[in-house]
Amino acid sequence: MMRPMKLAGDYIVFGEGALDYLEQIEGKKAIIVMNGRVLKTNGILDTIQEKLKKAGIESTVFDGIEPEPSIQTVLRGAKAMLDYQPDWIIALGGGSAMDAAKAMWVYYEHPELKTLADICKPNKIPKLRGKARMICIPSTSGTASEVSRSIVISDKENNIKQGIGDMEMMPDIALLEPKVTASMPPKITAETGFDALTHAIEAYVSRRADDLTDTLSEKAILEIFKYLPLAYEHGDNLHYREKMLNFSMIAGLAFTNCSLGIVHSIAHSFGAVFNVSHGLANGVVLPYVIRFNEQSEYAKKKYDGLAERIDKESLYEALVELKRQLNIPETMQEVLKDDEAFEKNLQLVAEKSVEDGCTKTSPVIPDLETMKNLIREVYYGK
Ligand SMILES: [Fe+2]
I want to staple 353 with a disulfide (CB 3.0 to 4.6 A). Which of 41, 90, 269, 274 is the partner? Predict the structure, then answer.
C-alpha cells in the first residue's frame, strides 16, 4: 500500500545550543506565545529575545496560556497577532503553549474564522504561512507538539474539548534545547515522560505502524525506559534531559504518522470528564491496556520483544515497576478519590473512549461493554 509520510517541518534543531539557531532566521517581528513563570525568571525568555535581536527581529510576548488552552485564549492571542503583525510565531512551553500558538496562527492568518467549530470537521484548516511561520521550543519532554500536526483546544463556555489534526499546522522549525526543559520539577518530568513513552508504545503496535514508524518508536521506547528514571532523579543533568527531549520528539515523529491507541482514548476521556492531566492519565492507564492488548498476537509478540530487550519478565511488569519508581499512582481511584462520581460517569467515559479517534488504530478494539470493564480495572485496579 502506498504510504505518504511527513516527519516534521523544515528543520529539527537539537542539542545544547539549539537556541542559537534563532540568530540566523530572517524576518521582522516575532510573537512569543508562552506559559510558565520559570521560563521568565530563569533567563530562557531573555536569551530567546536577545538571539532574535541579533537576527534583527523585534519581539513581543503573549503570556498566560492556561493548562487546557481555551478557544477564548486562542482568539485573544490571534487578536494580539493581528495588532502586532508578526512574521514568526514562537511557541515556548509545554503542550498547551504549543497547541494554543498553533491555533492562534490559524485565526491570525484567517480572521474570517471566528469560532472553534470553524476549524473542526467537516471544516478544514485553510492554508497557512501567508503571514507567518512557526517555531516551537518545548519546555517539557512529552507531547511532541513541536513535530505534530495536532492540537487540543477546549471551549469552556460550551464544555467541549476538541482534538484537531492537519498537516498544515506542522510547525516549520522545532528547537530542542535541553536547558529549556531543565526547570521541570520531578512530577512533571514523570508525567510528561509517561506521555512520551505511551506515544512510542502505542505507535509501535498501531494498526497503521510500518517499517519507518517501527524503527522510530522501538528506539524511543528503549531509550525512554533508560533515561526517564535518570531525568526524574537528576533533573539538572542536561545529558539526561537532552535524551528525553530527543526521544520524546522521535516518538512524536512516529505517532503523528501512524496514530495511537486506546491508552490515549481513555486518557482523553478522563481528561475531558474529570480534568485529569494528560500525562498522568496516560501513566495510570498504560499497563492496564498493555495487559488487555496481549490478547492480540501481533501486539503480544512486539511487547515480548521489547521486554527481552530491556531485560524484564514482561512489558507489563516493567511498566508497573517504572510507575512505582516515578510515583505515578497505580489506579485512577488514587487520583480521583471519588467512587460515586466515577460510577456516575463511567458510561460517559466509556462512550467517549470508544468514539475517540485513537481507538481505530488500537490492536484490539473493544466494544462499549468491554471498554467499561477495562475502565473499571483502570479505576479500581486488579
Ligand atoms: Fe499524548
Answer: 269
